[in-house]
Amino acid sequence: MKSIKSKIVLFALIATLLPSAGLGLLTFWQNEALVNDGATRELHALTNNVSQLLETWLNENILAVRALAAANPVIEGLAISGQTKNSSDTEQAQSVMASYLLSVIGKLDNIVALAVFDLDRQMIASSVTMPKADAALQDWPQTALMSPTDANLPVSPADWEVYYAKSTFNIIFPVLSDDNTLKGYLAAALDSNALARQLRETRKFSLGEIILLDKTGHVFLSSAMQLDQTAALDPEIFSALRKPAAGSLVYDGLVYPLAIGLVSAYEKLPIFILVERDYAGVQIAWTKLRNRFLTLVVILIAMVTAFALYMGHAIVAPLEKLIAAARSIVDGKLDVHLQVHQRDELGQLAAMFNQMTDALRHKHAVIMAVNEDIREKNQLLQKLSVTDGLTGLYNRSKLDAILVDQLARFKRNNRPFCLLMIDIDYFKHINDELGHIMGDKILITVSTVLLKSIRAIDYAARYGGDEFMIVLTETDIGAAIKTAERIRMQTSALCREFEESPVKITLSVGIAQGQHSDMIPNDLIARADAALYEAKKAGRDQVQIYCDGSALSSS
């Protein structure tokens, strides 16, 4: 027994001291590098978050300016200015455009100024004076202005405008007539203050500061309130950080006396994202980590020594381990493994026990994997059973269930709801002429417009072929007409922007409101279908409503 006790104690001390001492020395030498790597990963994650933030902010503003460029007052004003030689007519058209720009500028949070230019790139109407818009427009290639893409965005460099007392971007879009003829250009000055607020919000959830630099390394936006527009990164440091393989560097920071930071270029805008952390704070974290490790090693040695002495008091200690392990398996805990030190019967028993637990763990893992696979397939099947494979909208069977539920709610609560039946005009002809690939793209585009045009409490479904249905809950006929008209106009605008084959797509819409006399979904669908038929019969590209036994025009 003395021999067993001595061996247990000696083994426990060696098994604890040697790895702990070796790992402690290795950690002491390499911990700083590991902490720096961790800080670098955090900075990379922060740059990715900022890139996504910039992407969202830019896309929202581009969509807004693109919509303004397609507005009738701008198109008609440019057409009058370009066709008539009557100065009074031209001045009146320009005055109408200026009034329109002033009316919409107050509704757009991120746009501080709008201006319209003719084909000679001369400003003819503006909400305010745009000091840099003329220069940006003159310098931009004609091909980029005619066909702006994500890879060739018509966005001028960020600049500090004295007129606005803020950093701005100039976005330029072509103004095209209904027959796709270039009439002029629309320029918008974007206010970066909203972007600065979002940077400060992002900073709340990170340990680093976010700084946006121009191509020369000067600051124009920052999450740090104390950093002003005159600050600039040292050119040599800026050049080193911009190298592809540079990673993070330690340098004299803009926000911290000594900072660790990295730079990432944002391709769609001529700017660079700089993120900084206080290097002194990183070192403090390393020191705390080292002290915690040493404390943990001391505690671990004391615990292992006490445990070894306790186990050495009796020869039954291995049996107690085996009993405890068996009890864990009975309780369902399969992560049990016994240390085998002896070569006697107890050692053989422990080895066989380990083999048994390994087999049980393997079988349990297989069963869990099979269960997870079945669960995922069931989820997929459930989704496929209620959605259309091409558009992702609800299918016809799901629509019937929705209508049954809405009719029951209507009869119970007497709250109105409406059904929109939507058909793509001449879709078969377009599909035959342009091919099924373009036909599918049109169907997907219409589905996207439907999803963006309804609320979270509404439902959109593909009824079949080129027919769609929308269930508008808590909605009367008036609100349903507005929604239908918005869908009809947005669909036509989006389909004209297809690069490979711009097409004119129009929609015919029939609207019916739920009634107490409706017993089944087909009662409501029949009225919406009748209104849709009247919309097609009246010339298509319009909205008809079913009211008092007949279909009426929404106008």
From TrEMBL:
GO cellular component, one term: membrane
EC number per UniProt: 2.7.7.65
An annotated GO BP: signal transduction
Protein name in UniProt: diguanylate cyclase
Domain GGDEF: 415-548
GO molecular function list: diguanylate cyclase activity
Lineage of the organism: Bacteria, Pseudomonadati, Pseudomonadota, Betaproteobacteria, Nitrosomonadales
Pfam families found in the cross-reference section: GGDEF (PF00990), HAMP (PF00672)
Keywords: Membrane, Transmembrane, Transmembrane helix
Recorded catalytic activity of this chain's protein: 2 GTP = 3',3'-c-di-GMP + 2 diphosphate
Domain HAMP: 313-365
Bilayer-spanning residue ranges: 293-312
